[in-house]
Amino acid sequence: MRALVTGAGGFLGQHLARALVASGHEVRAMVRPGGSRGELGGGVEVVAGDATRPDDLARAVRGCPLVFHLAGVRRAAVREEFLRVNAEGTRLALEACLAEGAAAQRFVLAGSLAAAGPSREGKREEDPLQPAEWYGESKAEAERIALSYAGRLPVAVARPPRIIGPGDRENLLFFRIVARGLLLELSGPPRPLSWIDVRDCARGFLALAERPEAPGRAFFLASAERTDLSGLQQAVAEALGIRPRRVRLPAGALRAAALVADLLTRATGRRLPLNRKLARQLLAPGWTCEVSRARDLLGFEARIPLADSVRDSCEAYRAAGWV
C-alpha cells in the first residue's frame, strides 16, 4: 500500500523509505523545502513540505493509509523550538490524518529512548518517562500526544536508542577521532549504551506498521548487544585496522569543550559535531533499554552485530571521504 514517510531526507528516513520499497509498498517521501533528498532510491515519490504546516501535511498524507512520522529536530537553541517541531508537529500530523481519512491502517511515530531518560539497568516500556533534557522532553510529549489519539487512529510508537550504520552523521565524530589515532575514555564508571543498526531499525518500523499487536503501545527497538563509548570506538579501531592511543577525558573538560563549541556555533552559524546536548548524553550514567516487548509481541529482533554495523559504516564513510 502507499506509505508516507515524513523526515524522509534524514538518516533513518532514507533507510526506511528504501526498506518500504523493497517490501512492495509505494512510498511518498516528505522532505523539507530545499532540504537534502539523500539517497532515497528509485520508486519513491518525493514531495516538499514543512511538517509543522497543516496544509503541507494535509497534501502529504492524502491517499496514504500508512504514515511514518519521522520529521523533527535534534538540535535547537531553545526548549520551545523542540516542542514546536517534535511535539506539536506530531499533533498536526495526526490531525491531518484524521481530516484526510488517512492512516486507516497505521500511524507510526519515531520516538526515542531519550523520552524515557538515562538508565544503567535498562528501561522498560512500562517505566515512567523521565527525560533528562529538552530533546527528550519534546519526544516524551510527542509520544503522549500520539498515544492520546489511539482511540481514533491505530497509533504505535518506536523508541530506538543510538542508531548506527552507513550514512550516519550523529556518531561520525567518534569515527573521526579514532581515525586520527585516538580513543577517548571518559572519567568515571562505565556508561552502558543500547544501540541499533539503522537497517534493523527500519525493519522494526515495518513490524510496527504490520503487526496487529502494535497499536496503542510503545516499543524499544534495540540490539540485545550493548556497548559503551569505549566499546564503540574499539570496534571502529578494529574496522579501520588501527591501534589508537587511549586518552582519558575528565567530565569537566568535556563540558567546557561542549560549551565552547555551542558558543562558536551561535557565533558562526556553523554546526559543530560537539555540543552540550551530546556532552550531557555522554556523561549520563547510561542509556539502555530492554528488548523483550518487541521480541515477544512483534517477533522483532535486531540481527546486525556491532562489529558488522561499524564495519559497514566505516566503508561508507571512506567511500564518501568522511574519514
Biggest sheet record: 7 strands, parallel
- CATH superfamily of the domain at 2-165 and 194-225 and 286-304, by name, is NAD(P)-binding Rossmann-like Domain
Number of strands: 13
Alpha carbon gyration radius = 19 Å
Number of helices: 12
Distance between the termini: 39 Å
> Strand order of the main beta sheet, please?
3-2-1-4-5-7-11
Subunit organisation of the chains: single chain
Look up the CATH topology of the domain at 2-165 and 194-225 and 286-304. Rossmann fold
Examine the secondary-structure arrangement and name the CATH architecture of the domain at 2-165 and 194-225 and 286-304. 3-Layer(aba) Sandwich
Q: Assign the CATH class of the domain at 2-165 and 194-225 and 286-304.
A: Alpha Beta
Which percent range describes the beta-strand content?
15-25%
- The sequence of SSEs as H and E is EHEEHEHEHEHEEHEEHEHEHHEHH
Low-confidence stretches: none
Name the average pLDDT: 93
- SS class: alpha/beta
Query: Percent helix among the residues?
Result: 40-55%
Described by the principal axes of the CA atoms, the overall outline is globular
Protein name: Epimerase
InterPro entries: Epimerase_deHydtase, NAD(P)-bd_dom_sf, NAD(P)-dependent_oxidoreduct
Domain NAD-dependent epimerase/dehydratase: 3-214
